[in-house]
Amino acid sequence: MKHKITIALLCIASALQAQVKELSLKDALTFALENKAEAKKAKLEVENSNHKIAEVRAQALPQISLNGGLTYNPILQQNALPGEFFGGPEGSIILAPLGQKWTSNGTVSLSQNLFNQSVFTGLKAARSTREFYSINQQLTEEQLIEKVANSYYQVYVTQRKLAIAESNLESTKKVRDIIRGQYDNGLAKKIDLDRISVKVSNLEAARQQLTNAVQLQENTLKFFIGMPMEQEIKLPENSITVTAEAFITKAETGNRTEMALLKKQEQLLSFQKKAYQAEYFPVLSLSANYGYLGQGTKMPLGGKPNDVFWTDFSSIGLNLHIPVFSGFSTRSKVRQAEVSLKKVEEDIKDTELALNYQFENAKTQLNNSIINIQTQKENADLAKTVLENTKNNYVNGLASLTELLDAENALSEAQNNYTTAQLEYKLAEIQIIKSKGELKNLVN
Asked: Helices (DSSP H) in 20-116: which residue ranges?
């Protein structure tokens, strides 16, 4: 029975282990682009733009409609007609009903724009609209990549800090065991044992706080990539490497999707202005219809041939609409479009300034982080050496407990500073890659 329980527990542990998903940065970004709502909605907008183009194109195609009607006239209207036309005395009036009790008609109508400047402008704008949504999809994906990458490194760094806290806790527990043994043998004071016990308790509390922080940041990462919260994830080791490959001397704003989107928006507003101006142009269209009219004393759909009389009819016409005066409505819309164009021009200037500002800050942060990483790495190595020497001196009675605790605190602080410097470097590196317009390369 015990063997069965052991086997069952091993199977459960194996299943749980299999459920843990190792998540590299590339995996996280790919998952986000395939599953996050923002990415899916951006793709749907591109798909929907094709339908919008078809809607505009329809205005240039023939419009065909079928119409039908059935009317019953319980009381026919009587008209006063001169009696002499019907053989009556001069000046007499005859009241004659016009029409029939039942009337039915079926008509097919056709209309076709021959010249409509608004339609021509709309077709040009429709193609630009598709390009606009395509660029917007790219921008949405880049924003998602940036957000996921930042969150990913936040998780990794917090996990590293948790690992440091656990390592320091284990190290301090070993020191506590040594001091307890010395105390039991009368070689250490009770206050020293109490002080190291308090240090262990504080480290355990700090570890729990970091454990909670890791869980919260992992949940945030899962949310950003659209992953179910119940899915366990594991980040591979050595996710942060420090290189200077991303460094450039000047921001390449011409490659930025934000600028391309604003330029396309400017083009669309230009088309909008032209569409308003097209309202000054005449509109020429062709119309045609053909139909049948049935009249009689009985319902046409079921009446006998002698009770219903059917006749066909047709017409073809040209329609010309020439706008003369619209109360300055068109002029007002054109001027509003001009203001919108000026506003987007200011947005382009401001965005270019903001992109340069972000790049310069990121470049400065990158340079500082590279220097800081090297410094903090040396500090951490030195603090580790100092702690090892202090431990040996304490065991041999050559150092006080205060010196030992100070050495442990110095090592913990140096390790955390080194990890934080790595995070600052990666965040700055992401901004540099963004300024080059190469965020999508993180996925490839």
From this structure: 25-35, 37-57
What is the rounded CA–CA span in Å between residue 217 and residue 118?
Answer: 53
For residue 219, the one-letter residue type is N
Query: Is residue 286 in a domain?
Result: no
φ/ψ region of 2 (left if φ > 0, alpha if ψ in -120 to 50, else beta) reads alpha
Q: Domain limits at 155?
A: 21-61+116-281+329-442
Q: d(Cα 225, Cα 36) in Å, to the nearest integer?
A: 6
| Mean pLDDT on 180-191 | 86
Phi then psi for residue 227, to 5 deg, are -100, 140
pLDDT of residue 90: 80
Using an 8 Å Cβ cutoff, are 424 and 365 in contact? yes
385 found inside a domain: yes
Contact predicate 319/284, CB 8 Å: yes
Between 15 and 170, the higher pLDDT residue:
170
CB 435 within 8 A of CB 351: no
Residue 249 gets which letter from DSSP?
Answer: S
Q: Which one, of 433, 373, 432, lies nearest residue 241 by Cα? A: 373
pTM, two decimal places:
0.79
Which CATH number is 42's domain given? 1.20.1600.10
State how many domains the chain has.
Answer: 1
Burial label, 150 (beta-carbon count in 10 A; 0-12, 13-18, 19+) = middle
Residues in the chain: 444
DSSP assignments along 134-165, one per residue: HHHHHHHHHHHHHHHHHHHHHHHHHHHHHHHH
Cα 343 to Cα 214, 269, 339: the distances in Å are: 44, 10, 6
Per-residue pLDDT, 202: 93
In a domain, 429, yes or no: yes
Q: What is the DSSP string of 100-132?
A: -SEEEEEEEEEEEEEE-HHHHHHHHHHHHHHHH
Task: Note whether residue 28 is domain-resident.
Answer: yes
Neighbours of 290 (CB within 10 A): 14
In 297-409 the beta strands, taken as DSSP E runs, fall at 308-321
Average pLDDT, the chain: 87
Calpha distance 389→379 (Å, rounded): 15
Q: Give the three-state DSSP class for 71.
A: strand
CA distance 437 to 257: 7
Question: Which tokens hold the place of 60?
Answer: 């240039």
